[in-house]
Amino acid sequence: MTDAEPTDSVTEPTGTAALPAPGLAAVPQVRRLLEAVDLPIGRWDRQARLTFFNPPYVVWARRAPDELLGRTLQDIYGTAAWEAAAPAFERAFAGEQADYTRLLQHLHTPRWARIQVFPERDDRGQVHAVYTIAHDIHDDMMAAQSLRRANWLLEQSLQNIPWGVIESDADLIITRWSRAAEAILGYTAAERLGTHRLAYGVPDATRPKTQAVYDRMCRGEIDSWVEQSPYLHKDGRSIWIEWTSSALRDEVGRVVSLLTFVRDVTHQVDTHARLLHRAERDALTGVLSRRAIMERMEAALARRSHDDLLAMYFLDLDGFKQINDRLGHVRGDRLLAQVAHAVQDIVRREDAVGRLGGDEFIVLSDVADVASAESLAGKLVDVIAAAGYDLLSGLRVTASVGVAITPIHARTGFELLQRADDAMYLAKNLGRNRWALCRSVQGDAMSGASP
Fold it and tell me: Do 111 and 170 lie in a common domain?
């Protein structure tokens, strides 16, 4: 089509124009029907000359009727227009219905149109002409272009943001795996697309919980989920990942996809763990601080069932003052650390060891029965006697250990601490380097000494 501006002389036509030619347009009934259709319709012969057009076609073409009739499509609209139309015309003259789209440049403002091309057959089935019907699709084309651009921008954003992007369908089959997801998790898109979300990397211990969350999202019980959890990188490393997942639903509320943003928070988790460890650990000995051991005690009491036994061991070092007085605080601190490490080594991993302050320590242990509690008390006395030795001076410290058990001797944390403290003083009064067990809620105790 040409880029020429339309002439101001073109007005709304009052009729149609046609060259004398056989065909449907020559039939009065068909002619009236074509004139009534509010779409630009033209009839073209095998030389691509316009032999008939209805009134809307004149308005659409922006030409006077005498500039249209008998002229070829190339004459009217230009070479580019004919090059766009020629393949569809060829198919129509071969007996097929065809169409093409083109940006119309002959209008005041260029607009997109879709032109349908239909063959016209005679009584013998021969095609002597074709009809074109033009449809304005400019708004649809602009909307489609805007949508494509929006999708392109979204895709570029998802591919280039530092967070990894993972998308799956409602069956948890992965449909998107961004470059950042590859960099963070180690697996390539080729390896993960089409696989189940939980197929790789998710530790067995966390898999049931993760599956349960996704099931809730798919059922519509929750719309989003944020969690930090361990992940097994492809290279075998254990890393920490923060998952931010959202359910994308259709107009009736069905989940069509689950979109998840992932980021590596290993550094943050490790830093937090170090800070937490530093905050809850005694700086000198490395065991739990006073506040931390008290919090452990309250937590243990809170989760204890009716029949569970929790033993508290109150440890006070015997003769430690002379170490500080004769050897100085540096040597005394070193001896405290030796004792603390020895106690930490003798108890189970799930037991808790803390320093109340000075030369006083607490051990918390879940025990099966009183006999088990007494056995551990004896071990604590023995290990401290062995570890509390200053090699250069030959001075040694021992420990007086008081034992109380909840719910036998106490119900609350305060009572438990008090009963264990009372039992410790009994052990000290009975000669030190021994343990004593609280016998009743009144604080009576029995003692035992290491051989």
Answer: no
As for how many domains the chain has, the answer is: 3
What residues make up the domain containing 224? 161-269
Residue 274 lies in a domain: no
pLDDT band at 26 (very low <50, low <70, confident <90, very high): low
Other CB atoms within 10 A of residue 211 CB: 15
Secondary structure (DSSP) of 371-403: HHHHHHHHHHHHHHHHH-B-TTT--B-EEEEEE
Answer with the one of 217, 246, 269 that is the final residue of a domain. Answer: 269
Q: What is the pTM of this model?
A: 0.48
Residue 1 inside a domain? The answer is: no
DSSP secondary structure code for residue 287 in this structure: S
DSSP per-residue letters across 23-77: SGGGSHHHHHHHHHSSS-EEEEETT-BEEEE-HHHHHHHTS-GGGTTT-BHHHHH
Q: Burial, 245: exposed, middle or buried (Cβ in 10 Å; 0-12, 13-18, 19+)?
A: buried
33-69 residue pLDDT tens: 777 778 999 999 999 999 999 999 998 898 899 999 9
What DSSP line would sit under 206-259, residue for residue?
THHHHHHHHHHHHTTS-SEEEEEEEEE-TTS-EEEEEEEEEEEE-TTS-EEEEE
pLDDT bracket for residue 158 (50, 70, 90): low
Query: Do 132 and 166 fall into the same domain?
Result: no
